[in-house]
Structures are given as C-alpha cells and as structure tokens.
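Reading a protein record of the kind used here takes little practice once its layout is understood. Each number in the token line that follows is a code from a learned vocabulary of backbone shapes. One such record is shown here in full, so that the layout can be seen directly:
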Amino acid sequence: MLKPNFMSLDKPISIALSNNEIIEITISPLTHGTLHEITPLEAKEHGEATVQLEEGRIYEYLITQGYQLSEPKVVYPSKLEKSLGQIKPNNYVGTLTIPIINLRDNKQCGELQLEVRSEKIDYRQDYQQMLEEIAEKCTELLMQPNAPISQYFTINFNEDARTLYQRFAFIKGILDTDEFNDAIYKVLLSPVTSWEEVEVEKDIRGVKRIDGKLLRQIINGPNRIPLPSTHPLSSKLGSVPQKVKINHKRETVDTPENRFIKYALSYFLYFCGNFANKLTVKSKHRDEVLALEEKLNHWLSNTLFKEVSSLHTLPLNSPILQRKEGYREIFRTWLMFDLAAKLIWHGGDDVYEGGKKDVAMLYEYWVFFKLTDAIGDAFKIKTANINSLIEPTPDGLGLKLKRGKECIPLLGTFEHAARKFNIRFSYNRTFSGKQDYPSAGSWTSPFRPDYTLSVWPQGITEERAEQEASMVHIQFDAKYKRELHKIFEPDGDLEEEKRQQSQGTYKKADLLKMHAYRDAIRRTAGAYVLYPGDVIEEKRRFHEILPGLGAFAIKPSNSKGDSNALTLFLNNIVEHFLNRASQRERMALKEYNIHQFPNKNNLNELLPEAYGSNRSLIPDEVFILIGYYKNKDHLDWIIKEGLYNTRKGSSPVNSNEAGAKYLLLYNGRTKQANLFFKLKDKGPRIYSAEELVKLNYPSKPTQKFYLVFEIDPMLEQEFEKRIWDIKKLSSHFPRQRGLPFSVSLTDLMEVLIRS
C-alpha cells in the first residue's frame, strides 16, 4: 500500500511569481494535524504537490499584501481584507491549482499548488489501479467484433499536450502495473531461445566428419599448407587449406518473440519521447514521462536485448507470444497500448486536466464499468452497447464517458421462462423537473443520478411503461469516501446535525440525496450509494427488497470481494422482478388506479374515521348495496332475521355488489331512504326457497335461489338518522325493477339530504 510520509508544515510557503517577486503564504488548519508536507522527491515520484491538505477540512490562509488567491467554490477571501481568507476543499480530492492574483493590475502572476488528500490512506494505490482497469476495460471494448476500428488511426503528435496527456495517462496505467513489471522480469530471467546454424572457420586438423561441402574446400580452398610426404594423401593432393568453414549449431536469444519484446518496449519509449517533446520544462507531467522513460531505458539496456536484432515482421500467430508467461502479458499489453494510444477520452479531463488528480471523479468512472459488468451478469446481457461508448473521431477513437453526458452501456432484454423484461442501464441520465403526473421525470427539481437501472415489461414502450406505472428505476451514486459517517445510524445526535448544517458540513447529505432520488423521481423504487468503505447497509421501506435505500462498499483494492454483496443484491432484484405476486407491483397498480385521473370528488361530510376495523373505509372504495324491499312485512322480516334477500336476476352480480359494506333499503313509494344497515364482511350466501320458508319468509318465494346478505347490528353512529334522496341515483337503477345495485359511499353522500 502506498502511504505518504507526512511531515508537519510549520513555516510559510515561498512562491516565485512571474514578475520576479517572491511572496509568502501561511496556511493554518482549523483542525489540528490536518496540514502536512511531503518531500519534493516523493512529490515528484507520485505527481503530487508537496503541501498536503485533507478533504472536508477548513484552512485559513494569509498571503503577502497586494495579492490574493482566486478559485471559486474553494477559496473564500475575507470581505475586510483580501489577503486573508479560508480554503475549503470540501469533497474535492487531487491536485488543486489556485491562481495568485496581483491586485495592482488584477492579473494572474503565479499559482499555489496544494494536494487535497482523501481520508483513505491508500488513495494513491486506488488511483493507479482504477486507471489501469479503466484502460483495460476500454481496450477490451475496442477488441469486440462490433467495435468501430475498421480504419487504422496513427498517433498524431501534433495534438495539444492536454489531449496527449489523457492518452499517456491511459498508457501509463497499463505499463505501471505489477503484472507488467513481473512479465518483463520473467522474460529477462528466462528468455526464449532457439538453435541456429552458423558457419565458422576451424583448423582442418580438428575436422572429424567430411561431407561434400568440406571435400570441395579441401580440394579448392585457399591458404593451403603442404602435406608431409608421409601423409597418405600427399601423392594426390600435395596440400590442403589451413582452415575450413563448417556449420555449427549454437543457442541464441535472437528469436522472433524476443525481437517483438524489444520492439514493443522501444515503441513504448518512442511514444513517451514524443510526448515529452510537447511538454514545457516546468510541466508537472514531464516528471511522470521521464520516470517512465527511465524505466523503459533500464529494461532495454539489459544484455538480452543487445543480442537481439530488429524486428522485421510481427509474429502475431506465435504460440509463445500467446501462451508463455511473460511473453503473453507483454503481447496483450502491446495490443492494449496500440488501441489505448488511439483512444481519446475527454472525460479524462475531469480526472487529470491541469495537473490535478481527481480520484473521486476517477472512482465514479471506475464504478461505471464495475456496475455495467455486474448488471450485465445479473440480467444476462453480456454484450455492451459499444456504440454508446466508443465512436470514431477525426483523430482517433472517442470514449464517450464524461460527467454530465448521458450514455447507455446496456440496452437489451432479460429473458426468463416466467417473464421477459426490457433493461436499460444509463450513466448520467437526466430526469427533468416539474413534470406533471404521469409524465416521466421529477415532480420537483431536475435530478441526474450517476447511474440508473430501468426495468419494464417487454411488449410496451418506455413511455407507456411510465404512463402505466409499470416502469421501475433503481438509482446509484458513487461517493469516494472511506466512511459514509454511519448515515443509517438509528441514534444520531439531532442537535449535532443542525450544527453541521449551519456550518455546511452536514454528514447525512448522502442519505438525504438518496431519499430525494427515491421520492422525487417518479417510478424510482430504490436508491443506493456505492463507496470504497467497509460497511454494507440495505434498508427496506416495507418487507421486500424494493422499495429501499442503502450503501454498498466497493473498493479497488478488494473489488472482487466487495462485488459479492452487490452481485447478491442484483440477483435478489432479478428474483424480485420475477415475482408476479410482489407487494411492490400491487402497490404500483394501486398508485396507477388512484392517480391516473385527477380527483373530481370533494366529500366534506361526517363519516366514521378510517381506523381499526374501519381502516379500509375509503369513500371511493366502499360500496353501498341499494336494496329493494316489497312491503312492511318484508321489512319487518329483514330487521328481525338480520338478513336481506334479493333475486339474482339475469345479470351477474359484480364485485362491488358482492363486496358491499353497507345496505340502504328503499321500496319505490318514496323519494327518500333512511334505512341504513351495516353488512357483515363475509359476503352474500345463496339460500334456496325452502331455506327461506323455514325462516318464516313472509311471502311465497318465486325463485329457486336467492342471494342473502347478513346484517351487522353494530352500525356506526355517524350513519344514524341520515336521509338520502334515492331518486337522484336513477342513473344507477337496473332495468329489472327490484334488483339491487351498488354505488360508492362518495356517490351516496352526494345525494344526502341535509337538514
């Protein structure tokens, strides 16, 4: 783990300005122990400023008279004296460059560089790892069959240094890895060798085997020496050459694979050298480039490469490059390098433009790829929507991943034997504000969550799914914070929270933002924070996984282990969507039925309160059975037996009639009705004519069967002594005289006769 070697800063900072003056700036932290300094050597090695602040802290500063610091949202000069003020980096993490303004001409004459450190002590390692993984992911996208790379782009070194740097940062993320370093050392320690035949001169006295080629040299070779007269061949040859050329096998490292390794390292070095030429001598990036150049030169100076010749053809089909350890990794890195060098990522400006190293922004981009993979796996959408991420540009390939710009990396269909869903995963999707129901978006202010997962049934459009409340959004936000300050802690100090709010350091802002997403953006069922911490929190509003809020820990140093919780959560989300009997889906239907039309009813009458056994007494959903009685004997029997019978008729009984909660009786001889009864909840039963006769029914039944409702004697007092004008319900009367019908309590109360 890369940890800074902090020293306390107890002296003013001296800065040389462009007008050759030297000024001093004194910085004092409000919280003791939060202002540090590292050595210039360490700062150079890691590309940081020597003066180190901590995120979320407040610092006071004093600058030489006649000058002031100027950086909106970070520097707050005093209203009384411009040379005094406060520095509040808030959640910013990285290199902070603050302009120094000469008050005499109101022009910039220098700059103060400060490093705002994350609370996480391993943020250097996180930065390097995240950049490496983003570079690797992007090059994997470019290697897909449908990637837009049919045209070959060469690196244009006439680009401005900023564009080249964002390319260099990608490439440095590939080369500055332990994996690549290990691969190089494996090649150097155990290089591939081959046997080659070379022609060497050898004293003829040492020759043991003679072939045709050697025989011709013996007969015709130069530099001959006479044979002794005693030699068997002296009479025929007279002389032989002193030395002859023979073929000799030797082991060599000059193989096509080693030539490729040398070529790849030289290619990397060439890129760094050209980029370095674009930088000024004082450029902060120059140190990074020179450090990488030094490493590449060190490797190329190894004795192995002194014996290796130049590469003439690329051995791309070599089994050694594709399989052997060391060679395999370098070959893959070269492929990534070649593509990454062509990739232009304007979103990278958010991460390292102007020399800054914004780890929080890089974390947001890194989480984007992690979340894309996790959602793709959960919903079985394997292919990324490459066209939404990579596009050809006049000078290379553009990665369209940038804060504030929407892109859709996943768009497809989740198919299961039980259900099929459309899936859309968006980055930076904007939900416009002040949208009237049932339009999509926010009913208050506009919102733009970092990531949005949208799920709706297959067979309908997004627009229709939004209109019918069949759409479900799940929002995610990335926060590069070590801890979320226990935002779900049940016993928080409310007075302390108010104090934090007044100071602008409210620690539960992340929780409130998730609530804002959940409550303001229509059809949002869940909102979750992703952060590099240790605690996983998942809160359910009711019983099911949705609706809910939560926080999931996912950090570069343990992304695989942390992803398990996120993967489990997403798998549970999938199971939740497959459940056709979910409470959330029932609630969505209720919402749709209730709000699809504006409420035109206005009921201000005395009614029983909806609690306890009457909790379901909602006037629009409580139905009254309007029943006919034939005469006084029939009415007396109804009251005595606590039963109301009615003919079934030719029309079916609907659910409102069968589920009626009250009964209002009328006999047709008067416009008014005041015989109001409560019905028991068990619903009607079917009685035969014989059963009614046994109950002393006052007349001879004319039907074989009757629907019979049982009266509950416990009528609420609010309904006592009420009279209704029954004739005003004439539009509800059935065609067959004497058959019952139902109206809602709201409709009934509209015909109430008020005394």
About this structure: The first strand starts at residue 7 and ends at 8. Confidence is low (pLDDT under 50) at residues 149-155, 502-506. The domain at 612-750 is CATH 3.10.590 (ph1033 like fold). The two ends are 84 Å apart (CA to CA).
